[in-house]
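Hey L., structure's done. Input below.
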Amino acid sequence: MNDQDKALSFWDKALEKLKLCKNESDRFFHIGKVKLDKTFLEKEKQQHLMVLGEKALELVESNKIKNAELKALSEKVVAINNRINSQSSKLKDITNSKIEVEDEAPVKPKASRKKTKKTASAKKAD
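Output:
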């Protein structure tokens, strides 16, 4: 094998490795795109399920749908909504309340004591 054949062989191997890298890069790009598309579809599904649930709740509350399971779920949702409203009003009260501060002398910060490591002989003395 002469020098020219060796050079061609080197460049052929390098080209082959570059093609392999490109193929792997394309594969990873495709995996990422499919995962992103799947995530967006799952999010869209959740949004539709939420709307569906709200409509079903309205129909159960208006007695247009009579189903024991849905009735029990709707009662849980109503109870949770009541708790959310209660927490919201508590939060509003806390947010709007003023904190009363007594006029006291300012508290001096305590001087921090630096902890020192005990030596073996000091530990034996304890």
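The longest helix spans residues 3-61. Residues 85 and 91 are 10 Å apart (CA to CA).

-- N.
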